[in-house]
Amino acid sequence: MYDKSNQQIDKLATFSDTPAPSVTRILYTDNDVAARSFIRELMESAQLTVREDAIGNIFGRWQGSEPSQAVVASGSHTDAIPYAGKYDGVVGVVGAVEAIKALRRAGFQPKRSLEAIMFTSEEPTRFGLSCIGSRVLAGDPRVAVSLANAVDEDNITFTLAANRAGYDEAGDNLQSVAVGNETYAAFVELHIEQGPLLEEQGVSIGIVTAIAGPASLGVEFAGGGGHAGAVLMHLRNDAGLAAAELALAVERHVLESGSQDTVGTTGMVKLYPGAINSIPRNAQLGIDIRDIDGSRRDAVVERVRATAHEIAARRGVVLQNFTVVNQDPPAQSTDFVIEAVKEASEELGLGHKMMISRAYHDSLFMARIAPTAMIFIPCYRGYSHRPDEHATLEDMANGVRVLALALSKLSSN
Ligand code: GLV
Ligand code: MN
Ligand code: MN
Ligand code: MN
């Protein structure tokens, strides 16, 4: 079985917009659509009843003996940021199906139905918003508005992109995706750690107790532009330098928090017109700030905002946009789900450690509507969001075994 799931991961990696070993699979592109078909077939071949909602969250259900009871679910995402690896998210989707198959093979009969889920667009690449599928599923009321206004860099709207991928109702029917608090009795997500601790410490299983809260900012400065040779330095209003200063200020404000749990990244800077001999007249930044403490994170966001205004005034540029795209609270795992994962690890003789997740996951949103916990497995040097991301077959198999046993416990209650 584990061999097969490795083949599945390799196969999924071929649905990519960039050459191997990198994987790039962006929401509603042809490769994303191909990956979706692959996951549906995987679920069908596992004899799961497959359903898809209006934005393409895919659900594969094994009906329990008490189908009216709230469901126990597991899942993750298969989209991949540009030049990513093949394990982030994928392990949690393929692993959920494998865990259910293993339980069926073992003769287990669930009381609560078990469900494997593939969430739409955990990564924010195309429309700037992360965890679209789980966010909408969990009923965030602001999402419909931001998605309705969202366009990608080719000015294609979210709705058009969804329609082209075969989701005709994504525009008008987003509300139908939300499920209530009563739907899921528990949710467990299997994921590579994306950090080095498990590998360094030789521990097989991480049990996530909390997920740091992410905030994303979109910022734009506009200046005068002009000829790189002809305009004297004291006459410039260089939007690019305003952006450079703000990127450094993000680092400074984050470090001022005094906690290693506060992190900030200016991962996107775009300068226009983007010619070596033209003073940037427009600069756009994408800034990501996270913390396990939501109010400390928010204080950093406000300092960045104040500094953006200060830089604009001092440099004579216009702060055309300062948008908080999302500012999500951190999530706490639920004790009885943590306990089920812990017992499963112990019964299987696998070492475990409690840890926080600094990366976000669909679990950040599932925790709003369901008792939730996550299972982390080691990955090579903690590498993630890069082509050399790697998890061993043995570590993935351990994760799937713990997941299967935890699901069996949770679905029997
Ligand atoms: C998810 O990919 C994250 O950025 O944490
Ligand atoms: Mn990721
Ligand atoms: Mn992920
Ligand atoms: Mn992620």
UniProtKB/TrEMBL annotation:
<protein>
    <recommendedName>
        <fullName>Peptidase M20 dimerisation domain-containing protein</fullName>
    </recommendedName>
</protein>
<comment type="subunit">
    <text>Homodimer.</text>
</comment>
<keyword id="KW-0479">Metal-binding</keyword>
<dbReference type="GO" id="GO:0046872">
    <property type="term" value="F:metal ion binding"/>
</dbReference>
<dbReference type="InterPro" id="IPR036264">
    <property type="entry name" value="Bact_exopeptidase_dim_dom"/>
</dbReference>
<dbReference type="GO" id="GO:0004848">
    <property type="term" value="F:ureidoglycolate hydrolase activity"/>
</dbReference>
<dbReference type="GO" id="GO:0005783">
    <property type="term" value="C:endoplasmic reticulum"/>
</dbReference>
<dbReference type="InterPro" id="IPR002933">
    <property type="entry name" value="Peptidase_M20"/>
</dbReference>
<keyword id="KW-0659">Purine metabolism</keyword>
<dbReference type="Pfam" id="PF01546">
    <property type="entry name" value="Peptidase_M20"/>
</dbReference>
<dbReference type="GO" id="GO:0016813">
    <property type="term" value="F:hydrolase activity, acting on carbon-nitrogen (but not peptide) bonds, in linear amidines"/>
</dbReference>
<dbReference type="InterPro" id="IPR010158">
    <property type="entry name" value="Amidase_Cbmase"/>
</dbReference>
<dbReference type="GO" id="GO:0006144">
    <property type="term" value="P:purine nucleobase metabolic process"/>
</dbReference>
<dbReference type="GO" id="GO:0010136">
    <property type="term" value="P:ureide catabolic process"/>
</dbReference>
<keyword id="KW-0378">Hydrolase</keyword>
<keyword id="KW-0464">Manganese</keyword>
